């Protein structure tokens, strides 16, 4: 996006390209993410290979399954298309214009961030190097150096963890036709997809669960036990090609700007996977960030740059609230007081009967608009 606006940039990556392209990540794109990818010329393969969808189902134990029709309430469609595929498309676009990506770098350090002459140092193949720049986009994830470069008396972190994780598998089998969230006394389960021959399933697991204890047979059996019978009967099982466990947590670090450093994506915030907001938030951050840098570097106005943090954070907190709400609604909480359990059941019943609540969820699920786009 910066290249399209005539701004030079250079990407520093800790891993190899092969490693980046091998990791299985998210895969549900909000309508705004889809529109943005198309607008910047990255929509072609997504439109060919992605799988559009118009809503999600919720299967609550002991109640009829129902569908939240996001298309009906918002007029917009979503898309199943893997983050790994987007990364592939981004590499291809970057290569096509000869944009530099320096991979396998180490010891990245950010310097003079509050001056007008910031610079970045790093090591590559044992040699130290330095890059002088105007701005640093900190897109290096939650464990990266960017957020850690903001002094602790400036940064505030808001955090919540949940007492369970998700065990996920990918299998080369035809997916269950709908994205379906299952609430069950054995624990939450989710059926999702990447393409017509690639299924993604998750089950809620204990925080101390270990992959070794979850051979494929046990996973499929547990998944099916948490779905309604007709759904379980139609799930096509097969060998997993990937299996991983992730704890669930919500984190926001504020502000997202410190001098010449602008944080984006997981460098500034984490959402639990419920609701599939993580990748989409990174995309909206990058939209705001590009707008801010382009305006400042092309016209010397700083309107968007001055508001980057507050604008991005408004959308971040909306997604934090939505993914927290869905996480709280749909999981089993160990030792939950009976009163709270009843509230959860009532929350679901209210969602089930009220078109207003469904419309509200649909609006957030499909993604709130980017401000000023
Ligand atoms: C996924 O396909 O990885 C996925 C889908 C929906 C969610 C979370 C994850 O809410």
What is the number of strand segments?
19
Describe the sheet with the most strands: 8 strands, mixed
Secondary-structure-derived class: alpha+beta
Low-pLDDT regions: none
Number of helices: 13
Which hetero compounds are present in the coordinates?
P-hydroxybenzoic acid
If you consult CATH, what is the topology?
FAD/NAD(P)-binding domain
Radius of gyration: 21 Å
Span of the ends, CA to CA: 15 Å
Question: Strands of the largest sheet, in order across it?
Answer: 5-4-13-14-15-12-16-19
CATH class: Alpha Beta
CATH superfamily: FAD/NAD(P)-binding domain
Helix content percent band: 25-40%
Number of domains: 1
**Percent of residues in β-strands:** 25-35%
| CATH architecture identity | 3-Layer(bba) Sandwich
What average pLDDT do the residues reach?
97
- Shape from CA axes? globular
